[in-house]
UniProtKB/TrEMBL annotation:
It catalyses: guanine + H2O + H(+) = xanthine + NH4(+). GO terms for molecular function: guanine deaminase activity. PANTHER family: GUANINE DEAMINASE. This is Guanine deaminase. It comes from Bacillus salipaludis. Binds 1 zinc ion per subunit. The lineage of its organism: Bacteria, Bacillati, Bacillota, Bacilli, Bacillales.
Length: 454
């Protein structure tokens, strides 16, 4: 009898396509020593009963209790870890002013490694408790503190993709918070890449370095060029903010006479492993360039309500075949929960479709065909995120990592409204997506290891 590290029995929900959620009722999941799902067996399969008989007495056999369900762990494609220190505050002014008044001052404090450690421990734990098993992080300009964030992810068992932020443009950054110059920024980024790669050799779930120009305004051409070269040299991930707001989009058009997408591409920053946050102002050519280069869009629906002056036409981008995932954008977005962002993604898309200005006739108010479904928003938070970072995560299927959140719909203070013993499983899925709270997440696993218990 083959030995598995863990075997799980229960009902799971997993995206089979952007529009479809597959319901794996009472399936068996066999997890190997690498933390990968080696085999999934359904009750209708011939070997189901023999396997159940053989393994159900095993000490590593886990049967979900009544009212519990597996969801894939969420993949948060855009988190500013240092901004956790100001989450839920400072949402009252436009992007440019917000950066200068609140955000650069708080990020500059991460020169202090002890302060950084404190905040980074909390944000990684908070994200795990909210079901986020993989996170793509912006740290700060500080090389040491950025490495601390990668180490904390490694230690807590979260799959962390971490970037030391580059911002060297004296015209768009304050004296107290900036890389010394382009060469220093590039040299520090290279050292950071090497240090994270070394850490990765000791980290089961993976940690990855990310080349991270903050956004075009905060970087000189020399820095952008050097970072593009580093990304190619080490075949790393790349992240930045792209065409986010009227101001930022306009700034780039003025500086380069083109949109962010083409400007970033000129510097070698649009690659298969690139993830660009926001992208609200992408036009059709920009979107085609994203699709051609394999660059992913990270949709940050809560943050966009505050800083993007727009709702991204996500349905149009999905139809074009652009890879898209979901991001909290802490602290432009206040919530560490991708459940909250899934909900906002659906609600924002409905408001875009119908329009909101009642001074206009109903037929002229909105943008037709803009809505996305809860299934599509779930896809963005899971399988779409996995595709965006080209890793076998975000689905509960063979050859994917065992990254899961176990949802308990019966928890006393957060009981979901389920009153029919034979309730349709897709309705249960929808109730979980709309109503689940962190208390309903009773366990979180990453790469076959339990990393959070309620
Ligand atoms: N653009 C440049 N930096 C930031 C940031 O920290 N948050 C958001 N939302 N946009 C940015
Ligand atoms: Fe951001």
């Amino acid at each position: 009898m083959k030995k598995y590290t863990n075997i799980f029995l229960g009902t799971a929900f997993s995206s089979s396509s952007p529009k479809d959620v597959q319901i794996l009722k009472d399936n068996l999941f066999f997890i190997n020593t690498e933390g990968m799902i080696e085999k999934v067996v359904a009750p209708e399969d011939a070997d189901y009963q023999p396997l159940l008989d053989a393994y159900s007495g095993d000490e590593n056999f886990h049967r979900l209790a009544e009212g519990q369900y597996f969801l894939p762990g969420f993949i948060d494609l855009h988190v500013h870890a240092p901004q956790w220190a100001q989450a839920g505050t400072a949402l009252d002014i436009p992007l440019y002013d917000w950066l200068n008044t609140y955000t650069f001052p708080i990020e500059s404090k991460f020169a202090d490694v002890a302060f950084a450690k404190n905040v980074y421990h909390d944000i990684v734990s908070a994200l795990l408790a909210n079901g986020t098993t993989t996170a793509l992080y912006f740290a700060t300009v500080h090389k040491e503190a950025s490495l601390v964030l990668a180490e904390i992810c490694a230690e807590k068992g979260q799959r962390g993709l971490v970037g030391k932020v580059v911002m060297d443009n004296p015209e768009q950054t304050p004296d107290y918070y900036r890389d010394a110059d382009a060469q220093t920024a590039i040299a520090d980024t290279e050292e950071f890449i090497l240090a994270v790669k070394e850490l990765a050799t000791r980290t089961k779930q993976g940690v990855y370095p990310v080349v991270t120009p903050r956004f075009i305004p905060s970087c000189t051409d020399e820095a952008l060029k050097g970072l593009g070269e580093l990304a190619a040299k080490y075949d790393t991930y790349v992240q930045s903010h792209c065409s986010e707001s009227d101001w930022e989009h306009g700034y780039v058009q003025e500086r380069f006479r083109k949109n962010d997408a083409f400007a970033l591409h000129d510097f070698g920053l649009l690659r298969a492993k690139s993830v660009m946050a926001h992208c609200n102002f992408l036009d059709d050519q920009d979107a085609d360039l994203f699709a051609e280069t394999g660059t992913a869009v990270c949709h940050c629906p809560i943050s966009n309500a505050y800083f993007a002056n727009s709702v991204i036409p996500i349905a149009r981008l999905l139809a074009k075949g652009v890879e898209i995932g979901l991001g909290s954008d802490i602290s432009g977005g206040f919530s560490p929960s991708l459940f909250d962002n899934v909900r906002q993604a659906v609600m924002s898309s409905r408001m875009l479709e119908d329009g909101v200005n009642t001074a206009l006739p109903a037929a002229e108010r909105g943008v037709p065909n803009s809505r996305i479904t809860i299934n599509e928003a779930f896809y963005l938070a899971t399988a779409g995120g996995g595709e965006s970072v080209s890793l076998p995560i975000g689905r509960l299927a063979e050859n994917y990592a065992w990254d899961v959140q176990i949802i308990d719909t019966t928890f006393a203070t957060a009981k979901l409204p389920l009153y029919d013993a034979n309730e349709d499983l897709h309705d249960i899925f929808q109730k979980i997506m709309y109503l689940a709270r962190p208390e309903n997440i009773c366990e979180v696993w990453v790469q076959g290891e339990k990393v959070h218990t309620r």
